[in-house]
UniProtKB/TrEMBL annotation:
It is an enzyme of class 2 (transferase). The keyword Repeat does not apply. Keywords: Acyltransferase, Membrane, Transferase, Transmembrane, Transmembrane helix. It catalyses: L-cysteinyl-[protein] + hexadecanoyl-CoA = S-hexadecanoyl-L-cysteinyl-[protein] + CoA. InterPro entries: Palmitoyltrfase_DHHC (IPR001594), PFA4/ZDH16/20/ERF2-like (IPR039859). Belongs to the DHHC palmitoyltransferase family. This is Palmitoyltransferase. One of its GO terms (molecular function) is protein-cysteine S-palmitoyltransferase activity. The lineage of its organism: Eukaryota, Metazoa, Ecdysozoa, Arthropoda, Hexapoda. One of its GO terms (cellular component) is membrane. It comes from Euphydryas editha (Edith's checkerspot).
Length: 383
């Protein structure tokens, strides 16, 4: 009789299964690479392919969305100004009339600069290279325009043309930010940040009284208007009840005349009791704080770029160059912070900070945006 014995080796089973699955996965990966092989394929190419739908959306809809953004900025700015006059002005006028006059003058100065620079940022073309003319200092050829590009010029996919000293395309301006309107763009942001900070500081006490103290002074929509200015008593439930019957008579059995003090209703109490004014204060607080943090961060970021003498596009390019060669790379358009800011603000040819920065000014920048001074060929007394 023959006896057959089967022995199953459990010890190597897990290793063989793992090896088989790994081999199958490697076959699938190899097949995928074989079918999709391209010598030009790399990580950046894959990222560009994944971002292509976003680029298509920007190219086709950014121009129309820009008009919506401009409308939103106009409506929000108008709403803040209207609420400041509707709610804030009576509040400060009751507190101190002299301070109110100062706040009105200072606030309107900020508003004038905000409106002026925003309008100029929208209406001023950023600057374009001339077509059909010879550019003596062309840096390269634009692959999309098939035309020479001056130094610091870049192609905007939204505007579909090259922009002199392009910084970025701003949907809130519905315009590119370039050589001829970058000053308006930055000063608009700076004055807007100053404006919302001014509104927050001026409305700090009002917001505390309305949102924190929440004292209506007995003014509500539900109570009897005859209750205001009359004596009241409090029942056991804590509710104010008007004293309508006064059981006091004189010698002739006629009701006595009472000269009771009328409590003063402050403007803060009126605002707190008014449902729409209270909502307006909340709207102002949320809007101004949001704009302060959002635009404040942009002002700081662009201020650093201006101090280094570079645009936002150049800041991205130069950061990569600095990583490659930290010791030898130097921005050829960086003349030092003081000179960079003078060039950016156009404070040349006798222009002053008081007249041409603190007040609206339409002075153009120095130069034409086609040729540039650099640290290698700059004149000592320039600008």
């Amino acid at each position: 009789m023959v006896v057959l014995q089967w022995r199953f080796q459990w010890r190597g089973l897990y290793g063989r299964i793992k090896q088989y699955i790994t081999w199958k996965i490697s076959q699938v990966v190899l097949t995928f690479y074989t079918l999709t092989y391209n010598t030009h394929t790399d990580k950046n190419y894959i990222i560009d392919c994944l971002l292509e739908p976003i680029f298509w959306f920007v190219d086709n809809f950014a121009g129309n969305l820009g008009k919506v953004f401009v409308f939103c900025v106009t409506v929000l700015t108008t709403a803040v100004v209207v609420i400041a006059y509707w709610v804030g002005l009576p509040y400060w006028w009751q507190k101190n009339q002299y301070i109110t006059i100062f706040l009105v003058v200072f606030g309107n100065w900020l508003l004038l600069n905000i409106v002026f620079h925003y309008y100029m940022g929208i209406s001023t073309p950023p600057g374009y290279p001339p077509h059909g003319s010879m550019i003596s200092e062309a840096a390269s050829i634009c692959k999309k325009c098939i035309s020479p590009k001056p130094p610091r010029t870049h192609h905007c996919s939204v505007c579909d043309r090259c922009i002199l000293a392009m910084d970025h395309h701003c949907p809130w301006l519905n315009n590119c930010v370039g050589y001829f309107n970058v000053r308006y763009f930055y000063l608009y942001m700076a004055y807007m940040v100053a404006g919302v900070a001014f509104v927050i500081i001026a409305g700090l006490d009002l917001g505390y009284q309305v949102l924190w103290v929440n004292d209506t002074g007995g003014l509500t929509q539900e109570n009897d208007p005859d209750l205001i200015g009359h004596p009241v008593r409090m029942n056991q439930s804590g509710v104010l009840v008007p004293v309508q019957l006064i059981a006091e008579y004189d010698s002739e059995n006629s009701p006595r005349e009472h000269d009771l003090p009328i409590p003063i209703i402050t403007e803060a109490q009126r605002i707190t009791a008014h449902p729409w004014k209270r909502k307006a204060v909340v709207f102002m607080a949320v809007t101004c704080l949001s704009v302060l943090f959002a635009l404040g961060a942009l002002v700081v970021m662009h201020g650093k770029n201006i101090s280094r003498g570079e645009t936002s596009v150049e800041a991205h390019i130069n950061s990569s160059l600095r990583k490659q060669d930290k010791n030898q790379f130097r921005n050829p358009y960086n003349f030092g912070k003081k000179k960079n800011w003078k060039l950016f603000l156009g404070l040349t040819q006798g222009r002053t900070f008081l007249r041409h920065v603190l007040f609206p000014s339409r002075h153009p920048p120095s130069g034409n945006g086609l040729t540039w001074h650099t640290i290698h060929n700059a004149i000592e007394d320039w600008p």
